[in-house]
Q: What sequence folds into this?
């Protein structure tokens, strides 16, 4: 099988990588619901562990809410239900019985959590309430599905917070940006923060900041979002608290969520024609050790490889010893597809020279790594791989934005232009040019351009792209 | 509020502990679907981490299968569907559409996994296939629900294996017993292995071994099970492999599963009138440090408490510094309810004497722990607490079994008696005496008694109890 080239057809390349790297199996008999195979799940679990690290460190408590939401609760916030009405799964029967109240499989957890928040929050002393959960959510996607990027069962984290004031909620949004930066740093994923248009914001939100990265085909991929809800949910769900002076106020709420799309982003942003390229932080194996046997010296080489593996593992690295009875070239090929960041080969010449031959997955660079102090040497090299992957990815992300004066025959990039901010012009941009208006840069001010549609001068910039 | 005494009413005591220790919130608006609050979820996550440790160490790969199973796949194994027919949730609609094929929320994952296993297993080289997942399962319980013990959304681990022969599958069952022993050791939970009766085995299984522990009210609580399936599923799901000599055989399968009932078992087995008593391995906080302020010396005490907390945390212990502005007695009370294994108090006299005053949650024992080498001292004490909790629990478990000659007015214990093994006698035991026949000891042979019903001499022992 000849691998498909990334530049030729991103879409087929992507599907090919997912299959050949063993990340997910989409032959499960429900369309858009895929099986997490062991290797893909290990990557996701590493990402989850960093999410937990960051949210725990910022005082969020992990909870786990039920999957099923009664229709009565689900329908309390009107905009919200309108946004999800056409894409939720309904449980209508249990055993032989028809249920009195139908149950929805959570598409997101606002309507599961907020009736409980109303019980948990009583006084100002209970605030801020900062919670999160890692669960699967369900959406009946009607568009073409794609592993990790558009699926019907979605692995997901969502933080939900309640605050005494709009300003406190705003400060939470700012903290979310810091958490996001630390997370994306580990995943070597560049991103833009774009405040979504009014008609594209999360149903029920005051405003939504989309977190977007760019795919090699010039399309934009939303990998998460941060929402400020004001009191839009706390009013219908009656989440209020007693203030210090005995009054009663509704809480101000925020959420922050990202999904398994992060895996899709890692594949798309870093992968190459040889397969997956994994950032060391999320690689199930950071190093693969391959013994290169020589006639009569097989045992010496094997022992040295085992020793090297043990030393690196003892130093806290995730290391695979590949001592299968296969040609070295075939092993190299396998681990390249699977994106292992660093390969260490050990042959008799290496052993005699006191080195291992290394090959970096990201750059293809090869050389000799001294076995003396190999733990520190391998760790430094992994750090270097991370930095280099991050720098390259950011460079590509920034150069994937093109300033345009017209939307006629635009380049396959994210387009930046003047936009007056009015819905009428926004809708024209989307409908006439078949683009998604991603919104305006979060916090951006000052650069005056003319609206690409109406010509009105404005401080706003618009971003648009074809989305995945 | 006066706490309910464990001995007076186990059932009310249990519910009271769950609520006051903040393990779960059952006010969620779907009956039997409870919210995992932060403290309870931390305990569950620690248990999950040990499950992962043990299954990873024995060569099982973690996977994650979709929640929803098409009715067509679900109905392939006839006994299985009969067993679950009355207690599954059905998804019948998505958005505005009625689905062509109804989808079942997994009550367990055989019928989700096995169509995929049929694709994954091709040749003898693919065997054994050893997988597991940690997911939530769903059963429409009609009996009275109880937090962790009988719920409708169940947090669960399940390992699923495929083998070349019945003997290999049997060897897997033996390995499961070893894994189980190591897990229960960490949780300080005693248990019995009982081969279930034919009419109580898992639907579709060749045989089922139930893992039972005893609750203080004399009832038996099943906390998990291990099943040998032979080829009962691999035939309908067509999971077969090419043998070394080119033939084709169906695989032999096993499963092993345990649920959040482990949390229920920890509460019931170890708790006392003051609240929860957590085994150190699953305690979110293993040590709570309580500064005992003295007038004018508050800062010294606070600093010493912070220093002690940091030292213990640096040594890898999970430690909470409780420096809230509350009376020490009220803090002691709070952490006793929550079951923290070890309390360290620090007052001026302690500091001057170079010690902390310790109080063990399990025994109530108090004394002085030298601050010099306190890391090792605290660790040893936690080990001692584990050993002592385990020994006490095993003693109670073994003494909760009573040998009886008649089932008339039996003691509130697990009853052991002769049973010929015939269904007719078994059914009489269950129906006439309102007991659950738990089965016969796994692997037991040799002790001849007369069947308690028909008088026939037999090598079999029967175990029966009222179950939770």
A:
């Amino acid at each position: 099988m000849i691998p498909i080239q990334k530049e030729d057809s991103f879409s087929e390349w992507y599907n090919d990588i997912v299959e050949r790297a063993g990340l997910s199996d989409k032959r499960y008999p429900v369309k858009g619901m895929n099986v997490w195979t062991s290797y893909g799940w290990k990557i996701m679990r590493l990402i989850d562990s960093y999410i937990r690290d960051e949210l725990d460190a910022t005082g969020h408590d992990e909870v786990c809410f039920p999957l099923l939401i009664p229709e009565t609760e689900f329908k309390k916030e009107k905009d919200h239900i309108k946004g999800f009405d056409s894409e939720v799964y309904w449980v209508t029967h249990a055993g032989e019985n028809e249920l009195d109240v139908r149950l929805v499989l959570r598409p997101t957890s606002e309507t599961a959590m907020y009736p409980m928040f109303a019980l948990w929050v009583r006084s100002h002393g209970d605030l801020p309430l900062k919670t999160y959960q890692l669960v699967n959510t369900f959406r009946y996607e009607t568009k073409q599905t794609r592993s990790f990027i558009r699926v019907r069962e979605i692995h997901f984290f969502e933080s939900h917070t309640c605050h005494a004031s709009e300003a406190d909620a705003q400060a939470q949004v700012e903290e979310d940006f810091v958490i996001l930066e630390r997370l994306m740093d580990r995943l070597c994923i560049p991103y833009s923060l774009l405040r979504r248009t009014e008609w594209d914001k999360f149903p029920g939100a005051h405003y939504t900041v989309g977190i977007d990265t760019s795919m090699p085909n010039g399309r934009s991929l939303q990998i998460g979002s941060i929402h400020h809800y004001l009191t839009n949910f706390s009013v219908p769900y009656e989440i209020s608290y007693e203030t210090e002076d005995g009054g009663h106020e509704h809480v101000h709420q925020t959420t922050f969520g990202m999904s398994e799309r992060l895996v899709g982003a890692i594949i798309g942003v870093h992968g190459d024609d040889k397969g997956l390229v994994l950032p060391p932080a999320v690689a199930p194996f950071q190093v693969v050790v391959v013994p290169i046997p020589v006639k009569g010296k097989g045992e010496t080489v094997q022992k040295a490889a085992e020793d090297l593996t043990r030393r690196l593992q003892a130093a806290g690295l995730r290391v695979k010893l590949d001592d299968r009875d296969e040609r070295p070239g075939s092993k190299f090929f396998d681990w390249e597809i699977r994106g292992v960041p660093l390969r260490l080969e050990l042959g008799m010449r290496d052993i005699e020279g006191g080195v291992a031959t290394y090959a970096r997955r990201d750059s293809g660079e090869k050389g000799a790594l001294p076995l003396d102090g190999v733990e520190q040497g391998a760790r430094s090299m992994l750090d270097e791989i991370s930095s280099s992957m991050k720098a390259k990815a950011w460079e590509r992300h920034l150069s994937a934005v093109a300033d345009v004066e017209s939307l006629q025959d635009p380049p396959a990039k994210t387009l930046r232009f003047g936009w007056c901010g009015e819905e009428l012009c926004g809708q024209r941009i989307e409908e006439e040019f078949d683009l998604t208006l991603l919104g305006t840069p979060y916090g951006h001010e000052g650069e005056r351009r003319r609206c690409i549609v109406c010509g009105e001068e404005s401080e706003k910039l618009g971003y648009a792209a074809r989305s995945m």
